Amino acid sequence: MSESMESKTQQLGSLEDEECLVSDTRYSVISSQLRRKFGIKWLAEYTRQSHNPLVVQLLSFLFLAVLLLIILVLVSKAPSSDVQDKIYQELMQLKTEVHDGLCQPCPRDWTFFNRSCYFFSKSKRNWHNSIIACQELGAQLVIIETDEEQTFLQQTSKARGPTWMGLSDLHNEATWHWVDGSPLSPSFTQYWNKGEPNNVGDEDCAEFSGDGWNDLRCDILSFWICKKVSTSSCSTK
């Protein structure tokens, strides 16, 4: 082989080697860039800048599909009992979060207790106007039905100050009735404060006061509590 042909062959080989080297280098750089860019941050940035909703949806779907596949592979490698326990715990946690986030047994600004909803006023009215205010809210001035309810309302009212309940002896002195016409149960008379009711100054309406009940003039301004039954399935929680 002539020296010129050998020289050309060497040059060609050198160029091919160089091209391969360059190609490998370019591939390595591109591969590195793809690995560095591909991921949650890359997807978030791309979806933010993309003007094609279809592309965004497709990429999001593919990314979530890959993520789900990875999770399934990891879970399949765990012991069966551990997987079941973990899935059960996560499902219970998810159920609680969804229930708390979506289930509202009472309207906003109302308090749920034992299947009923209570509205604690932030303003003061006389006893008669308190009845009207509750009616406008689709409720009644509170009627106490259980000892547990009494404890709950007494504690709440004590922190706020004197608060009207739906109890009076307006129609017959010393004969106390609730606003729905039902008589006061004898077992509830234990909740009167010591020396009450005393009817000093024509006191015909009942209020929560301190640790018990007190009779007071019906035209005095006090806080008030409305009550209505919760109709939501959340009340069975």
Low-confidence stretches: 8-44
What are the secondary-structure elements, in order, as H or E?
HHHHEEHEHEEEEE
- Based on CA inertia axes, which overall geometry fits? elongated
Counting H and I runs of at least 4 residues, what is the number of helices?
Answer: 6
Rg over alpha carbons: 38 Å
What is the name of the CATH superfamily of the largest domain? Mannose-Binding Protein A, subunit A
Tell me about the largest β-sheet: 8 strands, mixed
Mean of pLDDT: 76
- The structural domain count equals 2
Rounded to the nearest angstrom, the distance between the terminal CA atoms is 95 Å
Residues in β-strands, percent: 5-15%
- Secondary-structure content class: alpha+beta
Any idea of the CATH topology of the largest domain? Mannose-Binding Protein A, Chain A
CATH uppermost class of the largest domain: Alpha Beta
| Helix residue percentage | 40-55%
CATH architecture of the largest domain: Roll
Tally the beta strands: 8
